[in-house]
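Technical annex, item 7. During the second reporting period the consortium partners agreed on a shared format for inverse folding records so that results from different sites could be compared directly. Each record opens with the tokenized structure and is followed by the designed sequence. A conforming record, contributed by the partner at site C, is shown below for reference.
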């Protein structure tokens, strides 16, 4: 059974989406259909798209426009990396973990929001046994080629 999201998580996600999508147009991508509205539960999305054996991170894209994309991500470990061409708006919806960023380590938990401007080295490690689930909005949309591993561990 899924736990309901804390009110702060819902408010944080709403603010995250408003900010992220205001950075770009919501017009359709060239050659693709107009984006369709969607409503989903992050925990249900992860349950329907389980992490494969040996994986430490699983990403499910749930929306994409010309200006931004939104993914539900389960993290066991996201090794330190950065994105040169996109900003990330992150809302933690379940679990807890440690964020390594800027030479510091911070605890993160459900309800927390993060802003990671392009070029910011960051890594996340789950703490405990509960799934660490985050919703990430990238503006402009994330590109798998724009994941650059950090040269040194945070």
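Designed sequence (site C submission):
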């Amino acid at each position: 059974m899924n736990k309901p999201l804390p009110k702060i998580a819902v408010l944080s996600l709403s603010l995250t989406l408003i900010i992220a999508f205001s950075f770009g147009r919501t017009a359709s991508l060239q050659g693709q259909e107009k984006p369709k509205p969607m409503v989903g539960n992050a925990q249900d999305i992860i349950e329907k798209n389980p992490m494969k054996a040996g994986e430490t991170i699983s990403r499910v894209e749930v929306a994409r426009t010309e200006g931004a994309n939104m993914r539900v991500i389960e993290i066991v470990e996201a090794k330190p990396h950065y994105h040169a061409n996109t900003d990330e708006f992150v809302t933690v919806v379940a679990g807890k973990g440690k964020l390594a960023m800027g030479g510091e380590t911070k605890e993160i938990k459900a309800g927390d929001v993060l802003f990671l401007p392009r070029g910011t080295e960051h890594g996340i490690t789950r703490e405990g046994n509960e799934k660490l689930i985050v919703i990430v909005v990238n503006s402009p949309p994330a590109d798998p080629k724009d994941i650059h591993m950090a040269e040194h561990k945070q």
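The chain has a mean pLDDT of 86. The chain has two helices and ten strands. All partners now use this format for quarterly exchanges.
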